[in-house]
Amino acid sequence: GAVVSQHPSRVICKSGTSVKIECRSLDFQATTMFWYRQFPKKSLMLMATSNEGSKATYEQGVEKDKFLINHASLTLSTLTVTSAHPEDSSFYICSARTLRDTQYFGPGTRLTVL
Amino acid sequence: GQNIDQPTEMTATEGAIVQINCTYQTSGFNGLFWYQQHAGEAPTFLSYNVLDGLEEKGRFSSFLSRSKGYSYLLLKELQMKDSASYLCAVMDTGGFKTIFGAGTRLFVKA
């Protein structure tokens, strides 16, 4: 299957700092990538849809100024959590859509904000 | 509204067969996915159904009935490593958004 990488896998930061998470499709080009967050024992919650070369589409209730998304190329999307707070601590997962519409997920990034 | 229902938990015995059901009501339909997710890890792709019928892939099979808004994932010859959450997800027709169910936690016992 298609491979999606995510970096970093874990990050611990102080409250008020910003954290950038990268999502890369390694062996295919992805015009669309998705960003999810997942709380323990809960399902994935879609945060935003990232389209290459255009602005991301955010889901209702997700602050676009807090969660900055950039889809600079067909293989890279980044999520920046700005001015992070402890309630932003979560498991952030990206996925990339292939031409056959299947989504492949990155390994996830566990963010802990102290 | 958008709604995907699947059982919260299931328990089965090693070597047995288990069927995990999923019902959905979505505004659009562009395919149904099943993913496996082990604790602390990201989901991994298992299957994709867009037409009615059964898709078989090794020990795993997935069935879809679009008229009934129903799918199931069938796991045969269960192994301990199959203990995981199984997520049912439906792709919407607009924007390729995928809506996930809450997942079914499967426990495989010896």
Structural commentary:
The complex is a heterodimer of chains A (114) and B (110). Chain A is built from no helices and eleven strands. In chain A, the strands form two sheets. In chain A, strands 2, 4, 5, 6, 9, 10 and 11 form a seven-stranded mixed sheet that branches. In chain A, strands 1-3-8-7 form a four-stranded antiparallel sheet, with no helix packed on it. Chain A is mostly beta strands. Chain B has strands spanning 3-5, 9-13, 18-25, 32-37, 44-49, 53-57, 60-65, 70-75, 84-91, 98-100, 104-109. In chain B, strands 2, 4, 5, 9, 10 and 11 form a six-stranded mixed sheet that branches. Chain B has a five-stranded antiparallel sheet with strand order 1-3-8-7-6, with no helix packed on it. The A-B interface holds A 1, 6, 32, 34, 42-44, 46, 49, 57, 91, 93, 95, 97, 100-108, 110 and B 30-31, 33, 35, 40-45, 48, 87, 91, 95-103.
Topology record:
The complex is a heterodimer of chains A (114) and B (110).
Chain A: E1 4-7, E2 10-13, E3 19-25, E4 32-38, E5 45-51, E6 57-58, E7 67-73, E8 76-81, E9 90-97, E10 103-105, E11 109-113
Parallel strand pairs in A: 2-11
Antiparallel strand pairs in A: 1-3, 3-8, 4-5, 4-9, 5-6, 7-8, 9-10, 9-11
Chain B: E1 3-5, E2 9-13, E3 18-25, E4 32-37, E5 44-49, E6 53-57, E7 60-65, E8 70-75, E9 84-91, E10 98-100, E11 104-109
Parallel strand pairs in B: 2-11
Antiparallel strand pairs in B: 1-3, 3-8, 4-5, 4-9, 6-7, 7-8, 9-10, 9-11
